[in-house]
């Protein structure tokens, strides 16, 4: 059931983000942030070696390991791969709740953990696409599930950007945490341009 749910979440995500922690940063000397301790740009075989086995899910341009616990929440760790190189990492949270507002609690749990580790975010926003339920917090989770409300925070640590987002559509909420490294992001854009040009 969890595998089916995770695949459904993968189809809904629109943004191109173990509990294994990065060592604490030295003051004024931030270390390069990694995803699951896997070096940026490595091969699938190197990912398998680092993760200790084969992934649970293999997709066209990514592999997923689950379950992975992040601050007590169930997630899958997705390694996004193009041209045989690991370019981005994403944690996709797969918690189930009968009350949609509990997804907001999940977001706050992860945001707090990130703040404790990396400090205040570069940007944090509660964005309303439709403010119908804005004045009634008890319906904020429902508002998110139908696409009215988006929560996100971003951090920039050295050359790595972290995006934390919760958003929804068609009564389903997607909650994820994505890590991207500057050089790999530029390489991914180059790969995308080459792939698009090859179709001309």
Which characteristics define this entry?
200 residues, eight-stranded antiparallel sheet, globular
Order of helices and strands: HHEEEEHEHEEEH
Q: What is the molecular shape?
A: globular
How would you classify the helix and strand content by structural class?
alpha+beta
- Overall domain count: 1
Strand content: 25-35%
The share of residues in helices is: 25-40%
Largest sheet: 8 strands, antiparallel
Q: Strand order within the widest sheet? A: 1-2-3-4-8-7-6-5
Number of strands: 8
Mean pLDDT: 86
Q: Give the count of helical stretches.
A: 5
Q: Which consecutive residue ranges, at least 5 long each, have pLDDT under 50?
A: 1-29
Briefly characterize the structure:
The longest helix has 18 residues, at 101-118.
Helix and strand layout, with pairings?
Blueprint: H1 2-12, H2 44-51, E1 57-58, E2 62-70, E3 73-82, E4 85-93, H3 101-118, E5 123-128, H4 140-145, E6 149-157, E7 160-169, E8 172-181, H5 182-197
Antiparallel strand pairs: 1-2, 2-3, 3-4, 4-8, 5-6, 6-7, 7-8
Write up this protein.
This protein has 5 helices and 8 strands, in the order H-H-E-E-E-E-H-E-H-E-E-E-H. With 200 residues, it is an alpha+beta fold. It has one domain (2-197). The longest helix is centred in the middle third of the chain and has 18 residues, at 101-118.
């Amino acid at each position: 059931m969890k595998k089916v749910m995770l695949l459904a979440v993968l189809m809904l995500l629109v943004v191109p983000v173990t509990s294994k922690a990065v060592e604490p940063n030295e003051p004024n000397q931030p270390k390069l942030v990694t995803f699951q301790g896997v070096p940026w740009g490595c091969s699938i075989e190197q990912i398998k070696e680092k993760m200790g086995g084969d992934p649970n899910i293999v997709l066209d341009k990514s592999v997923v390991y689950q379950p992975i616990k992040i601050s007590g929440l169930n997630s899958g760790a997705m390694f996004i791969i193009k041209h045989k190189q690991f370019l981005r990492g994403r944690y996709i949270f797969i918690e189930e709740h009968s009350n949609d507002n509990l997804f907001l609690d999940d977001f706050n749990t992860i945001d707090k953990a990130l703040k404790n580790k990396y400090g205040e975010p570069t940007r944090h926003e509660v964005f309303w696409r439709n403010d119908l339920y804005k004045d009634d917090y008890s319906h904020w989770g429902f508002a998110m599930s139908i696409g009215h409300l988006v929560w996100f925070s971003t951090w920039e640590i050295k050359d790595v950007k972290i995006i934390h987002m919760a958003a929804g559509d068609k009564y389903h909420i997607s909650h994820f945490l994505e890590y991207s490294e500057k050089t790999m992001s530029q390489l991914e854009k180059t790969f995308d341009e080459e792939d698009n040009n090859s179709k001309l």
